[in-house]
Please model this.
Amino acid sequence: MVRVTEPTLHGTAPAHGGDRIAHTEATVIGTSPIEKSGLDPGSIDSELLTINMGPHHPATHGVLRLLVSLEGEVVRDLKPIMGYVHTGIEKSCEDKNYWKVIPFVERMDYISYYFQMQAYCGAVEQLLELEIPERAKYLRVIHLELNRIHSHLVWLGTSALDLGAMSMFFYCFRERDRILDMFEMSSGQRMHTRYFQVGGVFEDIPVGFAEKVRAFCDEMPSRIDQYEALLTRNEIFLQRTKGIGIVPRERLLDLGVTGPLLRAAGEPWDLRKADPYLSYADHDFSIPVGTVGDGWDRYRVRIQEMRESVKIVRQAIDGLPEGPWIADDRKVVLPPRHELSTSMESLIHHFKLVTEGFRVAPGEVYHPIEGPRGELGCFVVADGSAKPARVHFRDSSFVNLQCLRDMCLDEYVADMIQNLAMLDPILGGIDR
Amino acid sequence: MAARMPDAPGLELIAGELNEAHPGSVLETYHDRGQACLIVDPDQVLGVLGWLRETPGQEYRFLASLHAADYLPAEPRFGVHYELLNMARVERLRVRAALADPGDDALPEIDSCAEMFPTADFQEREVYDFFGIVFRGHPDLRRILMPEEYVGWPQRRDFPIGGEPVIFTNTENQVPRWYE
Model:
């Protein structure tokens, strides 16, 4: 686990007490961060220690390994190593019909499954040039924004836990559970709901769902006030986050960082506003931005985003239009169940769609949406058959992770934990 | 909804100007289902990206995504896609570098754009990992998601979707030495 660059440097006896670990045969994968840092590994002033943090570490929010070069307690270089939960989902998708891919892609970023579904279904709908009904757009927005709150709640609970605020976790998961209850009500599943279909949504919302969502929207702002009362002016939290992990806005843009991280640095870039998809153009909401771009700004932006999401959910549930919840294209969408016993044609369509799936004309589409962590893009290549020739996800955590080194360089190890928490990586999405 | 993009004449204008600045760089254009794409010569991809990034009036400064696809029966076989974005105009433009398979065990090569767009670092490693496309000048081209010692390029279309037998307690004696 530990590698000391020059064990013979200080003679046989360790110069700084007996706790220096002797030379091991362990090697660093690839180029050593020490060699890259340009520091002379032999000089006594720069005694660098390269250690692994992870892959199994509670503060990495998944199976992420960080190769860190430390000088005392200061991080001098850092290299993320991932791939531990790579399951080849993109490859497996190439062997599935278009409609069977949906439950697969949900399991990439396992916190924001509705967003994965929307990115994929949106891409396929764009390939098919299929217009989805208004009600489906609103239903999708309701679930997407509930999912955004859910995702931010998981982030808030675990990040506060990393900084020592144990009780935040319980409060956040209390509200998260209410959201999961609503998902269960509309789709029958708490996670990985497969609620979105190509063409709309799987089923209309049940009786009582709207009341439940309204009750949640009434209550959630006061719950967010409670989180803020616990954290926003908390001395320990402020000292751990204020002025830590600042990366200039231009550098973030160069690194391709999007989402709350970019907005916290003062760039008001949000695809829901910049390039409205679904029914976002109908809703009145604002984009919170930070000023400095430190950990506290990232926290404030996400807290405020939850409030804005509550506003969107309320507007969408109040303005929910009547009508069909899925497109009426029998070549793509399953016919209503009751028609199967009366209409031969519906039975044939149903049989063809379930056994073979629908075909998509050759082409390629990149469909970006605003996920809870930034731009979530789905790139689909169709070759004319009933299976996609390529499904690629531009996962926002994967790209955002590149700015971790900039955040952590020349700061303390403890701040690295805070930076990683505020980055909010989901390893299932990174590794896919 | 359709993402904004240069319209069809605008795309031809860009292609024409690019071919003036870098002769022979744009091989083809297409405009399909709300997407505009330039298919370019892989040897000139850095020139094209730099021109699109720096030329006043274009300024596609944000590389939203870099990925690849294997169009197996088609020639040239590989495509490396650069999803460019102009944030001020919210315009997207795709550049596809059409890479031929050099045959045998040789790997196709293309210039790395990690210096121009630092965000490409991980994504080029991912493309290398899955397609075996070598990015010349990349600072640290190693596998990123697959294990270091892995052999093969799994996202290529001719790479079989294999499988390992799933072991349950009632079937474990059918797979000898499964615990190794």
Notes: Chain B touches chain A through 46 residues (CB under 8 Å). The longest helix of chain B spans residues 8-21. DSSP finds three helices and seven strands in chain B.
